[in-house]
Amino acid sequence: MPQSGIRRRGFLFHIPFLPLLMAALLLSIGCVPRSADSAPLSAEEIATLRERYPAMSIVYEPTVDVLSYDLEKDLRLISHAYVEVEVVEQLDDIHRGGTINPFEGIDPAVLAEKEKNLGHPIPTISYQQHHQVYRLRVMDILCQGDRYDPIDPALALTVGQEFIAGSMVHSYGFSDSPLPEMSPGSRWFVPLPIGDPYDVLATDYQFRSQGLYYIVGNTHVLSAYQEREPHLYTGLPCDTFRQTIRTILEEDVNGASHAS
User: Fold this and answer.
1) What CA–CA distance (Å, rounded) separates 259 from 24?
2) Do 222 and 235 touch, CB atoms closer than 8 A?
3) Residue 134: Cβ-neighbour burial (10 angstroms; 0-12, 13-18, 19+)
4) DSSP secondary structure string, 205-246?
5) Please, are residues 55 and 224 in contact by the beta-carbon 8 Å criterion?
6) Any bridge partners for residue 213, and if so which?
7) For 177-212, how does the pLDDT look when each residue is reduced to its tens digit (9 = 90+)?
8) What is the pLDDT of residue 84?
9) Which letter, b or e, does each residue of 198-229 get, where b requires 16 or more Cβ atoms within 10 Å of its Cβ?
10) How far apart are CA 74 and CA 71, in angstroms?
11) Is 92 in contact with 194 (CB distance < 8 Å)?
């Protein structure tokens, strides 16, 4: 009997400490840090990464009308696909130059009349182009085609497909800073115009740094261009960025269906 009484007293003695123990356990659980992959990058982390992944600067010729880049507008109206790609290899740059006759193909009689009215021959336009060239592999397709301009099935991209693409460093009316050297395995999110009739290069696609996001550490995105409010996505986790892009497109489709 005395032994059982001692056990009961011991049990009763520890009861007041149970709430404290539970509170300590809950506090320790709450203090477990979130996965670094699910949290946005800090300003300090972004500043450090910018040394390797800079935001490109663009210089336009005075004769070019410049519109601020808008990723949402690009997704809705301009690019035919927004994809995640992996660099398979960086190829030799392409440099091209020459002249273009803006009235090539026009009836010679009409052209002669124009020149007569001008009092001199219509001059040709000279151009210089510089493209960085990559062999890329499609890893994910965030969007392809839109409600205005469906993709020709023969031109549609597929996951795993490899293609050659040229990043425009210098072309008609503007000069873009070259992308930093990209080793095999580097990944981007990038907009692509599919079936561009003005492509005069030996590449499948052309693209610019505008709209391109580096994937850093396979976990977060960093813009390759100067973003502007309210479209600031640098530092977001990749999964959040993917969902943000898809939400933009879903809202666009829903808005179009309500309007109709």
Assistant:
1) 55
2) yes
3) buried
4) EEE-STT-EEEETTTEEEESB--BTTB--TT-BHHHHHHHHH
5) yes
6) 189, 223
7) 899 999 999 999 999 887 654 455 567 888 889 999
8) 97
9) eeebebbbbbbbbbbbbbbeeebbbbbbeeee
10) 5
11) no
**SS3 call for 48:** helix
Say what the pTM is: 0.72
57 C-beta neighbours (distance < 10 Å), count: 11
Q: Are 185 and 200 in contact (CB under 8 A)?
A: no
Nearest to 192 by CA among 222, 152, 165: 165
For residues 164 and 166, what is the distance between their CA atoms, to the nearest angstrom?
7
Q: What does the alpha-carbon distance between residue 80 and residue 203 come to, in Å, rounded to a whole number?
A: 17
CB 220 within 8 A of CB 41: yes
At residue 187, what is the residue type? Answer: R
Distance in angstroms (rounded) separating the CA atoms of residues 191 and 84:
9
What whole-number distance in Å separates Cα of residue 80 and Cα of residue 235? 25
What is the DSSP code (8-state) at residue 145? -
DSSP class per residue in 57-83: PEEE-TTSPP----HHHIIIII-SEEE
Smallest Cα–Cα separation from 189: which of 150, 253, 239?
Answer: 239
DSSP state of 133: E
Task: Please check the confidence at residue 238 and state whether its pLDDT lies above 60.
Answer: yes
Whether 40 contacts 236, CB under 8 Å: yes
